[in-house]
């Protein structure tokens, strides 16, 4: 069934909280229910223009990501965070508007919550930048914060190489987690899920949140969301 717009569901939380696992399970579940579903990363690549770099043509998203993640340049952590703002802004202004025309549900890994939580934990002055350049263009109908204990996250992260931000350790990530908590307490639209629960319980909770929103849309009659 063709619809005017999809609903956009974003899942956020600190590194290692289980976002990617949850989004994969949600995508499989709603596809099995007959919905047209896309799943992307807020900081991922999707049909972007190409730029020349090292004699190669690569998508602009991938170029920006490579600069943010690179250990070979002299960017500091604040500058790296600002690059993520640019990537996230492009996703919301260029990618998601295309996807909502051909899908029933668009799942997105990360949101501006992450920008604010991480960035402001590095430097509080960045909040003005994030709210001006990211929040103003963000597209999201449902915002889920997967609140997983920092110790559990770092246990999961121990299986791979840490990035520059993750290397800042548990003290910094507890600060980030507290910032997420402040954001959730100040915005009733942010749905918290306890990430310490089993994967099945986390998935069931997320499905309940998404289904509730679908029902609200159907009752309001503002969008047709149906497989």
Q: How would you sum up this structure, described in words?
A:
There is one protein chain. The protein is globular, with a radius of gyration of 18 Å. Helices cover 50% and strands 15% of the residues. A hairpin with a 2-residue loop joins strand 3 (50-53) and strand 4 (56-59). The longest helix has 23 residues, at 77-99. The chain has one domain (7-220): P-loop containing nucleotide triphosphate hydrolases (Rossmann fold), CATH 3.40.50. It is of the alpha/beta class. Helix 4 packs across helix 7. The protein has helices at residues 19-32, 60-69, 77-99, 112-122, 126-133, 150-157, 169-186, 199-220; strands spanning 7-12, 37-41, 50-53, 56-59, 105-109, 142-147, 190-194. The strands form two sheets. It has a five-stranded parallel β-sheet with strand order 2-5-1-6-7, sandwiched between helices. The chain has a two-stranded antiparallel ribbon with strand order 3-4.
Quickly list its features:
227 residues, alpha/beta, Rossmann fold, five-stranded parallel beta sheet, two-stranded antiparallel ribbon, 7 strands, 15% strand, globular, disordered C terminus
Unreliable spans are 223-227
Number of strands: 7
Described by strand count, sense and barrel closure, the largest sheet is: 5 strands, parallel
**N-to-C CA distance:** 7 Å
- How many helical elements? 8
Structural class: alpha/beta
Radius of gyration: 18 Å
Please tell me the total number of domains. Answer: 1
Order of helices and strands: EHEEEHHEHHEHHEH
Going by CATH, the homologous superfamily would be: P-loop containing nucleotide triphosphate hydrolases
Quote the average pLDDT: 86
CATH class: Alpha Beta
CATH architecture: 3-Layer(aba) Sandwich
CATH topology-level fold name = Rossmann fold
Residue fraction in strands: 15-25%
| Strand order in the largest sheet | 2-5-1-6-7
